[in-house]
Specification:
Number of strands: 2
Largest sheet: 2 strands, parallel
Strand order of the largest sheet: 1-2
Helix content: over 70%
CATH topology: Growth Hormone, Chain: A
Number of domains: 1
CATH superfamily: MFS general substrate transporter like domains
Length: 410
Amino acid sequence: MARTVPLSETSSLPVWRRPEALLFLMAAAMPVAFATWSALLNNFVIDTAGFTGVEIGWLHTVREIPGFLAIGVIAILLFVREQVLALVSLTLLGVATALTAWFPTFGGMLFITLLSSIGFHYFETVNQSLQLQWLPKATAPRTIGWIASVGAGASLLAYGLIVLTWRTLGLDYSTVYLASGGVTALLAVAALLLYPQFDSPHPQNKRMVLRRRYWLYYLLQFLAGARRQIFVVFAAFMMVERFGFEVDAVTGLFMINFLVNMLASPWIGRMVQRHGERRMLMIEHAGLTLVFLAYGGIYVFGWGVAVAAALYVIDHLFFGMAFALKTYFQKIADPADIAPTAAVSFTINHIAAVVLPAALGYLWVTEPASLFVLAAGMALLSLGLSFLIPRHPERGYETVIARGRPVPAE
């Protein structure tokens, strides 16, 4: 069994065995499987199972169920350490991705997607908690920016290999899914064996935590989850259905997207650290409002593929600013609340995600532009709420209307 090392003593470890190194390794491992799954998904389900907007909506609804049930992480943490749960979940994501092409039917895709989604969402829940526990508040935005850059770089590498080899080597879906999922699973198992268990100085609450003073964080999480589903489910699907993108074209677009994010994420982290979460979230939500309206314009005004592709990249760039919401919570939270609130916030983020994809799949086949107008309205509401974030948030000063109020007894 791996030995336990308090965070205060990790500076004596080799650089590659420190908590930050593990966060970077996990950031690189997860996208190898998930990015490949995402890049091939729309072509795979259209080519092999004849999916329309209705089926893809149901698939993403099932995919989001584990996110909605992320609150179950709290119960698991009664018996399993967060670090172990993160790596076991990452292994599950890799294995399920590797097996995806063996289930080329509607029912089969729902089943294997549910398994991979359990791995993805439970990993992301715990990974977010570990980042906020292991990284100092003063430098967390910059470090998380670099972590995001590493994740984008891993996605870029995975997509680059698909573009270079898909036609040249005559690859099929089974080979690519098996290779990418296998790499993620092997990296997760290696991390489980090679890294010590890191002990945070603040023991985490092992029960569900809902606090009134976190209300703004909860509401912004809910809106983020709702509008992101419209983008995740239907923006890439539009590129295949409306513009006829093949696997290598979709992957090439994703490569451009992640190259931009790989270069921009460290800069975004520095800007969050320098200017604060309030300003960066305002920029994110204002930008997303305009982008979603422009998506609607593709159907209203008949704009072509170049506009759609540009919007897809710009959209991801604005979404890349969303980690400012995590560091906002880190500043206002009781340190013992980080793990349970990560689980609660993931559930809140996925309330709309479970309902929207299936419901909006039916709207997509009749009036696709209205979906993006709805997302623009959500982004605009988030922009208004961003004004309530203080320039320097802290515990007891969670919103601009909370200064001077005593922090409730925990």
